[in-house]
Amino acid sequence: MVIIGIVLGTLATLTYAIEFQNWSAACTAALSVAFACVTLKIYWSYKKDTIFGMAPFNFLAFFFWLNAIAFPLNLGGCIACYVIAGVQKQSALDFHSENLWYTGTWLFVAAKWSLQNAFFSRRYSRAIFGSSSDPKLSTTVQIEPEPSEDPAKWKY
Predict the structure, then answer these.
(1) Where is the signal peptide (predicted)?
(2) Where are the domains of the chain?
(3) Can you give the pTM of this predicted structure?
(4) pLDDT tens across 25-38, in order?
């Protein structure tokens, strides 16, 4: 699904820029593609076990905090675009020139990708580096497996 999102976002970026001259929608569609590429990077690194080579602090600092900060900014931009488009009585049917309805929609898509990235990077970091988000606080605990019980000693 991520690859489909990247392809469709790239096509939308080119369409908004070349055909409709809607530069704000083209830029926000490109921003959404960038967040989708980060999603693909996180997922691919986890599946190919290359994520283990990253330092825990760098992983959290880049992937989690970047996306955790970007999410409210994208969502706020989406709401602002919708409010401004409604106040200015812009038509959602006019694709040519600036149209904040489409800019807001692509900011919503970017907010979705950034929230998903923050969620996945947090979950993967807990699975890989331990439960603490601060690598200085996370400690590795060796748990000994329980000895297997002999069924002959079971009491019925």
Answers:
(1) 1-17
(2) 2-130
(3) 0.78
(4) 999 999 999 999 99
